## 1
Amino acid sequence: MTKKAGQIVLLGGRGMLGTDLDRALQQAGFGVEVFDLPDFDITDAGQLRAAVGRSDVIINCAAYTNVDGAEADAESAYDVNAAAVGRLGDLAKANDSYVVHISTDFVFDGRKSGPYVEQDAPNPLGAYGRTKYQGEQLLAAGGCRHCIIRVQWTYGAAGANFVSKMIELSKTRNQLKVIDDQIGSPTATTEVVGVICELLSRDNPPEGLYHFAAAGQVSRYDQARFIFDKLGVDIDIKPCKTSDYASAAARPLNSRFNCEKIQRLLSAPIRDWQGPLEEFLECL
Ligand SMILES: NC(=O)c1ccc[n+]([C@@H]2O[C@H](COP(=O)([O-])OP(=O)(O)OC[C@H]3O[C@@H](n4cnc5c(N)ncnc54)[C@H](OP(=O)(O)O)[C@@H]3O)[C@@H](O)[C@H]2O)c1
């Protein structure tokens, strides 16, 4: 890239991350064209070609994100998370477009004791992570200019997530069991979009693979305690283990990212997870 991005095509722009990204990009002065279900299906090659057109910059937030559903419907997950991303890469290569693609901590098995760096070998535990990793590989193999940003434990106003789930459950229960053996960094979509906007504003937006998450780490149990504490909700929370819950897909116990690579590109230090979460709760 030798010039600032002008018109941006945003795929999956009505999802949790895409909605906040659309707003932030427009506020930053970018022109944004949003495509999403039901009127746009990324798995339809003709629709994808028409959407992408000859745009300079494409951001892909579209994904099959139902982690448990993907186990029973791996084919659909593959179509959206992998095959369509490969086609997107081919179109971008042909048009010399730059692609920002969002991926996930679920490419890892979570067995590493420390935070994951970009060079760590993926080993997905289930179909969602496997198809997301295949998407990364197909995009890279196509040879277009691209940046893959893996995010984890995201929450935002425009979608269901751990934070909204905890709040919903607390409305009907006075006792909750929450897993204390999954560790990660709760990351506000607003922080992710801040990073994407900053990267796109550079004269030369970066290429390659990057990890981004809020700083610090916490278990789901301690995150839930933080949420209810800040909201003043009186609820009895008990810790439990991932193995206590039957779910179709296995989840990584360690989702922590080492974000030093992306930090070097950013003007400000990545914020600890607590601040953005507190701000999010204050806006509810
Ligand atoms: N949420 C997390 O904790 C998390 C963690 C790590 C990584 N990520 C990644 O972050 C990115 C954004 O996800 P999100 O959290 O914003 O989830 P999301 O709210 O589910 O957003 C995904 C969007 O893609 C759309 N979509 C699904 N199938 C499509 C298709 N065939 N054609 C076009 N659009 C389609 C969805 O539409 P419908 O809603 O109508 O299905 C939705 O608007 C994804 O790449 C995801 O893998 C998320």
## 2
Amino acid sequence: MNFSFSEEEQQFQHRITEFLEAQQHKPYGADALDFGRWADSQLADTPARREFNRTLAEEGYIGMSWPGKYGGQDMPGIYDYLANEALAQFGAPLIGKGCGIIGKTLMRHGSEKLKQEFLPRILKAEVEFALGYTEPGAGSDLASLQLKATRSEGGWRLNGQKTFNTSAHFADWYWVAARTNPEAPKHKGISLFLLPLTQPGLTITPIHTMGDHRTNAVFFDDVFVSDDYVVGEIDHGWTYICEALDYERFSIYTISPLRKAFDMLCESVRKITRDGVALSQDVQIRRRLARLGTEVEAATLLQRRVLMAAASGAIPSVEAAKFKLYSSELGKRLADAALDILGPQALLRCEAPHAIAEGHWEHLYRATPLDTIGGGTSEIQKNVIARRGLGLPLQN
Ligand SMILES: Cc1cc2nc3c(=O)[nH]c(=O)nc-3n(C[C@H](O)[C@H](O)[C@H](O)COP(=O)(O)OP(=O)(O)OC[C@H]3O[C@@H](n4cnc5c(N)ncnc54)[C@H](O)[C@@H]3O)c2cc1C
């Protein structure tokens, strides 16, 4: 049994790490790569981050696993994973949404027009997307979504509301699920649309989360989408959304921020002395760190199982649910432990005079719960594991 990466894969890790180290010294480096803000790596948009993304694309790191006929490099999916882990390690934006979710779904189900319009722009990092699924009455039970799409000449008119749509205030295009057939059973009357976020009738208002991230509520007032921008077949959207959610769990959740935070905590414990005694000598702290270290290792191996399943051609939904559940809950335990171990100074915000690690721990404590909600809550991951993994269907 061999859990390590092949020689080629390790060479790739080395190459992208060198590339990222070099980017830190570019004029945009400090803003584009910032581990202190790792938890918002998907969310923040600045000119520096866009410039960084374009450089990443020019170097061929975007769409490596895409088929050659769509401009990809036909490389195994593991390289996308290795790239994302390296990016997360440096606090750089990940390659998830456009390349991992929208691009892959369009390749399978999009019309020729949509493929030609979007795939080359995704590969060049010229376009940012927001995902429009959740509504005030439809989150975990997404199939209950009510955004209404009614037939209009040459297209559809959308009316209703979405909520928690991250990036909608800066992205270019919107990937939106709406109900096209209210008479059909709830999983069968949903369709997927692409529309520009500048489309008349859209109102985007901020929702500020406790982790400092901005997400958005979006209101639709007779928003027109032409037939050309329907993804796949009308009323078949649920199937595409489920596939896209599998890509999301696979492509957006990374382990390296957790490993890095754990290493930072150990480093602090090695250095800090309290009341004349080194923290590293405290038995309770040593035990807690040993346990957390074991858990970080377990999370890493759960992620390898996702990779193994994906490499064998399966859709790793149960494996991805286990990894997401375990690693996101571990993120909270790690932040909790850091505050207990490092004491009151770790509770100070970054702007406070005596804050340690630039307020990283206090921020981590507020930001990690979001990971247990976005992309499907922990309870929903448990449902997936129970139903699909353990064969325990819900009896109605
Ligand atoms: C930071 C962040 C970013 C997000 N970004 C996006 C985005 O870009 N686009 C988008 O569309 N959405 C986004 N979301 C929304 C996210 O997908 C939903 O918040 C999530 O699916 C939960 O839905 P909800 O908030 O409606 O909670 P609900 O579904 O109302 O759940 C409330 C509580 O009930 C529990 N619960 C619900 N159903 C069950 C069940 N069957 N069994 C057991 N427990 C259950 C849940 O676990 C939760 O604890 C984001 C959320 C966050 C936090």
